[in-house]
Amino acid sequence: MAITPPAPGGTRRGVLPAVMLALATVVSAVASLNTAVPSIARDTGATQTQLAWIIDAYALVFAALLLLGGAVGDRYGRRRALAAGLAVFGAGSAAAMLASDPGWLIAMRGVLGVGAALVMPATLSTITATFPAEWRTRAVGAWAGVAGASAIFGLLVSGGLLEAWSWRSVFALNIALSVVALAATLAVVPESADAAAPRLDVTGALITVAGLGAGVYSVIEAPAEGWTSARTLLGLAVAVLVLAGFVAWELRRPNPLLDPRLFRVRAFSAGALSLTVQFFAFFGFVFVVLQYMQLVRGDSALLAAVGLLPMAVTMMPFARGAAPRLAARAGARPVVVAGLALVAAGMLVLSRLDEGSGYWTLLAGLIPLGAGMGLAMPPATAAVTDALPPEKQGVGSAMNDLARELGGALGIAVLGSLVQSAYRANLDPEGLPAPAAEQARTSLATAARLGPDVAAQARAAFADGMHVAFLSAAVALTVTAAVVAVLLRRPASRDGEVPGTDTDPSRARTNLLA
Q1: How is residue 263 annotated by DSSP?
Q2: In the predicted structure, residue 426 carries a pLDDT above the cut 80
Q3: Does 8 score more than 60 pLDDT?
Q4: Cβ-contact 253, 485 below 8 angstroms
Q5: Reported pTM
Q6: pLDDT of res. 510
Q7: Which of 151, 124, 175, 119 is nearest to 55 (CA)?
Q8: Which pLDDT belongs to residue 513?
Q9: CA-wise closest residue to 151 among 377, 393, 398, 362
């Protein structure tokens, strides 16, 4: 239970904007630096692998520590967690702004992820603890809207900043947002905590970081090391074993970070899987396509960001209107499956892009991608949260956050590595000295400065890699749609389900975590 009662109306009106600003600060940072990738590559000499790490370090640490961050807020106070997270986020951004080499930038992006993992779960928990039931639904709806729109906001604002300044301006924006959000938090957000919160499962969190870190490291480094090399295969095997150890550890814990038994509830598993794969495709796509638009098509950072707006414009009406109405009439299953199929179709169209494609081909892929995400996200999110009892909605919220951030981290790693693997394989710059040829293979931005012939070949090689990556994403989405269709089918019996649960998310109230 919260240690303070729900705030009066005047205070509530101040709380919501404060937590929305804190949420927008950390969510916009997931996507905002993508527009600056070409600029970072040119200024720091970062390779494609290092660029993937610069973007993914934030998403990976964010995802790995989300559950622990939520538990910290519940135990020690959500206001404290918000303030501490925003302070860490701002300090990390200031240090990143001064970076001159890729390694330091990667490390500081990881620090930003630590701050974000404290902030994001505390925003939703603060709403739940502060607002009475009759206000809570609207407040949570506003939270979801800000969470969805902030990524696009980050892309547009950072694109505009890059027109006048360097990539360091993106971190300056982070600093400004975190300072204002911290001041608002300290001024109006009341303290709340769970008096019965269990001890923190620090060991479980560390196991998660180790397992996810080993897996993502192996995937990102695979283009240089080789996908079948002993180092890559050993790293992936270690990741699987460590994450299996996490499952075993959590099963023995009386109060786990995430109870693995929850995944025996079909609706919960279907929702979590759908969200993970949607954001796998979405963030992997954004990471790759912004490089394509700037380094292959020659668009400016702002024009590239604006070029993605049709996806957001399509997504919003489907998410706010069509998806809830269709799910109410037909159930979650056909809506989620149709949404995933549309996203797969969009990725299939986008896989046809090459160095000579016009904007209309890109637009033809963006529209089904946005419509599919808008259809699939709301019922998948509801499936996760509705599969838990009312007193454990914090776990459902954390799982939704985790699915999004983990999917994003994996998408950037996997799709970025597929692009880089095909790029290296298809680029053979004849006539260049060996060191220059290797530099061209490690970075499209470097290859673009090595003469028109090498630049043209590099652009074609990058487009070949993009074809492989987007086609792979389309296959993953199609398989996921089939799995979700099976998981959300109406069962003839309760065999295989957790006792006391139901696969219909509207009735799946359990005491699994009690």
Answers
A1: G
A2: yes
A3: no
A4: no
A5: 0.84
A6: 32
A7: 151
A8: 33
A9: 377
